[in-house]
Amino acid sequence: MSDFRRAALGTLFFLQAAFLYADESVLLKFKEGTPENIQKNLVSRSTPTAVSLMEEISVWRIRFSAEQDALNAVNFFQSFDETEYCYKSQRRRAFAPDDPNYASQWGLNGDNGIKMAQAWSIDGSSGSASIIIAVIDSGVDYNHEDLASKIWINAGEIPANGLDDDKNGYIDDYNGYDWVNNDNDPLDDNGHGTHVSGIAAAATNNSTGIAGVSINSRIMALKILDSFGSGDEADEAEAILWAVRHGARVINLSLGADSYSATEAAACAYAFEHGVFIAAASGNDGTPYISYPAGLSSAFSVGASDSARNKAAFSNYGPNLDVLAPGVDILSTVPDTNPGGASNDSWDIWDASGYLSKAGTSMATPFVAGLASIILSIRPDYGPGDVAEAIRRSGSDYPSFTNEKGYGVINANDCIANLNAHIASLAQKVTVFPNPLRTSAGVTLKFAFSPAPSSVNVVRIFDFTGQEVVKLDQSSYYPSSQLISWDGKNSRGEKVATGIYFYFAETNIGQSKGHFAIIK
Questions:
Q1: Which of 144, 192, 246, 274 is an active site residue?
Q2: In this structure, are residues 232 and 261 in contact, taking their beta carbons and an 8 Å threshold?
Q3: Which of 123, 139, 194, 482 has the fewest CB atoms within 10 Å, measured from its CB?
Q4: 123: Cα separation from own chain's centroid
Q5: 414 classed as catalytic
Q6: Domain's final residue, options 423, 449, 478
């Protein structure tokens, strides 16, 4: 560059006031060794509306209010020997799943859907294969092209909760269990469970069929409904307990009845107490009464919304309703041949294409189950109450509540983006030490509270998969030292493995969550 041109360069000014109006950007990189003052002087001559430097890669972003100004700047900078490259910034688009029918899934990507398309851009929102969704229904077509890769297989291991199901006579290496035929082959001969499973977790971005809410979570197929779509309460209760024993973190119950059942309630309470979130359908009668099990406090009640974000006319409602989710004209997986019961079943859920649109609160519920599995993959320390609160807070009407819509239509993007927001205000401070704990050193892990509570309701410890390891309470609290001590053993008295663990503490002052490490 000539001395004359160098002498003509002025001082660079970073103009921020017009930033909002600058929608055309130029990306500029100078050759290595170009002095900083020369770079600034050259940039100043381009009359930008705003300028910023990406220091890590030494690239200038220069904004302009008009496209022609940006193009002129490109020509200007390309004329200098000091320029390594300069070009107008190119547009990028989000890579929506390449599943052929994704565009038809308004519940995922429509204006009044759950905003899953936006949510998938958030780190961790794909879910985890370690989080299992138990679909207690009519079984699952586990050979379906869009489900086969997502089906949980029991490999014979004892779950982290230590509840070994072998004692009940069930064998290993299967996809779930069938209480209708009393065997370990939960193949769907009705179609309802297959449709539900696809909504929650169909294989996504596989150039096939549809997309599911949770990209990585797996489906545990538990068959209690026969080919007519009818099932027994006892089988339902057994299936709930079976799901807990085998490590499910989420249960989907797109089924129910009008009346309360003590056994069903006990099974759901057991699941809740063991850290399992239950999503249940509010019912399809269009009445102001929530069906059971959705009406239970241990279950999360889901009603159906239409594509205008209104409550579907058929969706039951009432004071026990939690939220709405898309439930009208919902495209999902179905068996591609008559599964055997559809000829007798008014629901008629099979199609030669393997995909079909259906309506019902049954369809709304797996949107919530899929979202819950993502939440637990990000926060495995969450209990079912934490998951419920996070989903309620994402509702379109939150914090307002009505019997007709609960807290409104769920928003996966808001839910995941704000997952930790309500944790920040927890009042109880807990310090964990030593961290990491070396169990071979013969010391115990301490949970020190500040300020000192008068009572400790519970300290629950979870492993990395979210399974509860042990529960500590007031009996372990030493008020004089303001701490609870833990010997590093699980509820069975066995030393836990090396790894990362999470805790949830609740005292009379407030709650606290955190994590720590254990090394043997």
A1: 192
A2: no
A3: 123
A4: 11
A5: no
A6: 423
161 and 208 in a single domain? The answer is yes
- Regarding whether 306 and 235 lie in a shared domain, the answer is yes
Active-site option among 137, 141, 188, 414: 137
Indicate if 146 belongs to the active site.
Answer: no
> Beta strand 24-30 with 445-450: parallel, antiparallel or unpaired?
unpaired
Domain-ending residue, one of 380, 402, 423: 423
pLDDT tops 80 at residue 147: yes
The model's pTM: 0.68
Whether residue 9 is predicted with pLDDT greater than 60 in this model: the reply is no
Any idea what the CATH number is for the domain that residue 396 is in? 3.40.50.200
Phi, psi of 384 (to 5 degrees): -60, -30
Q: What is the Cα 35 distance to its own chain's centre?
A: 49
Position 363 pLDDT exceeds 60: yes
* Structure confidence by residue, pLDDT tens digits, 124-138: 888 999 999 999 999
Amino acid symbol at 354: G
CATH code where residue 69 lies: 3.30.70.80
CA distances from 69 to 60, 65, 361 (A): 16, 7, 54
Other CB atoms within a 10 A radius of the CB of residue 185 amount to 14
Q: In what order do the strands lie in the sheet with 132-137?
A: 176-178, 218-223, 132-137, 250-253, 277-281, 300-305, 323-326
Residue 97 domain-assigned?
Answer: no
Determine how many CB atoms are found less than 10 A away from the CB of residue 136.
32
Q: Does 477 reside within a domain?
A: yes
- Per-residue tokens: 166: 């072998």
pLDDT at 93 over 60: no
Phi, psi at 383, each rounded to 5°: -90, 175
Q: Looking at the domain assignment, is residue 253 inside a domain?
A: yes
Asked if 129 and 110 sit in the same domain, the reply is yes
Q: Are residues 419 and 445 in the same domain?
A: no
CA distance 189 to 451: 58
Examine residue 95 and state whether it is found in any structural domain, yes or no: no
Q: Give, in degrees to the nearest 5, the angle at Cα 412 between 220 and 102.
A: 70
- 322 noted as active-site residue: no
Q: Which residue has the tokens 């509840």?
A: 163
CA–CA dist 464, 482 (Å, integer): 27
* Same domain assignment for residues 454 and 419: no
Q: Distance between CA 355 and CA 365 in Å, rounded?
A: 18
Alpha carbon 52 to its chain centroid, in Å, reads: 35
The continuous run of DSSP H or E covering 499 comes out as strand 499-507
pLDDT at position 168 over 60? no
* Total domains, the chain: 3
Give bridge partners of residue 305 from the DSSP assignment. Answer: 311, 326
The H or E element spanning position 371 is helix 361-378
Whether residues 107 and 181 fall in one domain:
yes
Q: Which of 362, 377, 394, 512 is catalytic?
A: 362
Q: Is 492 exposed, middle or buried (0-12, 13-18, 19+ CB in 10 A)?
A: exposed
Given a contact cutoff of 8 angstroms between Cβ atoms, the answer to whether 310 and 395 are in contact is: no
Residues 223 and 283 in one domain: yes
Tell whether 175 and 43 lie within a shared domain: no
- Alpha helices (H) along 84-203: 106-109, 116-119, 192-201
